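User: I'm curious whether this sequence folds into something compact or stays loose and floppy. Could you predict its structure so I can see for myself?
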Amino acid sequence: MKTIYLIAALSAAALTAQDLPQLSPKAVVEQRIGLTDTKLTYWRPSARGRDVYNEVVQSGQHWRLGANISTLLTTSTEILFKSGSVPAGTYSLSLFANDGEWTLVINRDIEGWGVYAYDEKKDVLRITTPIEVGQMRTESLLIYWDNVQKSSADLVVSWGDRSARFPVSFPTERIAKENLDKALADPKAEWTVYRNAARYGYENMMPESEEWARKAASMKGDNWYVHYLLAQILESKGKKADALKSAQRALEAGLVEAKKTSKPFGSEAEVQALIQRLK
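Assistant: Here's the prediction. I'll summarize afterward.
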């Protein structure tokens, strides 16, 4: 074991002492998912003609999920896997690459060299998922986010002819509501705060959206969009008569603004279509 640590230490020194090309180059993947910022840092080994799952990673082997130093995942908020949650922070990732399924290990130790100093007591979570075996081959290890939605995404590990997806959920709705509450509680909140809140509320079918849109319209009556947004919200609630009035105000405000700037009202057709739908 001392020999392994010595090799690791010498390799680390070589990586930092001089800038030379590596067989397994560093990769950094930064991805915002909803309101969570994530960062994956890993070193990408390539197959280079080897049988990956015989010569490099054996079934049942605890693998550091990359080359050189530990693979790291950083998340700005708590995230949720199917087997449990992971608090905000930075963690090392490793993998048990079994024949039919892979188990992802999330561990608090980010200083260890790969899995040589692995301590199971520092595990935060383990997630097991079936592997996919396909015709496509990934020459160099690939770790990335796929199927990115507002509150979810898949953490994908792919190398050789095998890959695995680890679904993850993100607390987007909770954080958004907290941000809304904080912004709206400010007695000096601008009309744009209410406009943004109303738009988000409309998109997420929040009952408060009408109140916020009316507030924005009362604060900035010459802005066509706040009236248009209010009209959409009222229409979604079945209040067609009130929605029509707001849509007509939106058209009037847009045409007035266009006349002032000597430019055409770019959204006139869109507003006119809403008016016709409401008549």
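Summary: The first helix runs from residue 2 to 17. The first strand starts at residue 26 and ends at 33.
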